[in-house]
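During data preparation, a discrete fold description was generated, as reproduced here:
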Amino acid sequence: MTSVKSSSANRFFPDNFIKLPHFRYEHLLGGISGGVTSTLILHPLDLIKIRFAVNDGRSAHTPQYLNVRSAFKLIVKEEGVRGLYKGVIANVWGSGSSWGLYFLYYNSLKIWLQDGDSQQPLGSLLHMFAAAQAGLFTLVMTNPIWVVKTRLCLQRNVTDTKSSHTYNGMIDGLIKIYKNEGMRGLYKGFVPGLFGVSHGSIQFMVYEEMKNSYNKRLNRPINEKLTTPYYLTFAAVSKLIAAAVTYPYQVVRARLQDQNHSYKGTLDCVKKIFRYEGFSGFYKGMIPYALHVTPNVCVILLIYEKVSERIFGFYKGLSPNLSRVLPSTMITFVVYENVSHFLLGYKK
């Protein structure tokens, strides 16, 4: 397929990019659906992960949890069941918008780089480029939401609701942070968040290469739809590889966003974590993190069935594979692959 690359008023992008023919709402819809649903179900584990991550063992402001089980018990005892869902609204907005924007932008860039030919292989570097661009764009758009979400998750027994350090919700948090800390406050944790961009780049590169290699091995087009177990396997492997390399950034980012910790910057935070907590300090919260992401496969497959049914009347019985538990991030991959393939197939 020949790309329309004639000059235009905007010399940085070709005409076909400005007209946005490669933007597909299926990717946006799938990402939002998966992010919102999984967050509503799994938020308590995310909250506990954050509290573990910011616990340096020296601050009196952070509760001391022995393990995930004790954290659940103590939170319910001191804050009630509602305490497990502090920050859930901000998390829903952040997760839904992040996954929606990420998939929309990532796949739009892929289509543009392929000149509209989905069977044209991109290679590892271009996959990393598209994922990095999508991650950076998403981070810039959503970082303020993550700052509020982190602080709401760390907010325990609220006594003075008028305090500048106490937030009544996401909007109140955004207003108070901007009023008291300016734009810099809304973008705390942005620098370590860039490591999250590298996480996505590694993850998507491995994921795409595994899919392409598998299809090539069977002498099929690289955009050939796979069965669900293969999507789950490739998503799990790519996630584990990326997480093993980049998880520490989540700890650093959470510490910087926590108003109860005072660091001069990212480097100062890294130095203090290593000095006082050792290398293991960079992996605090890893267990609740793993527990948080593991059930996502069941959630995402259910989303796929329901989204397909409601939009175009498609409905297939849930596979017995729903009972199988595989590691994380499958929420995004399975939603994207299944929703986009079925919706695009329907249009044809």
Q: What stands out?
A: Residues 1-14, 311-328 have pLDDT under 50 and may be disordered. The domain at 21-347 is CATH 1.50.40.10 (Mitochondrial carrier fold). The CA atoms of residues 35 and 96 lie 4 Å apart. The longest helix spans residues 124-154.
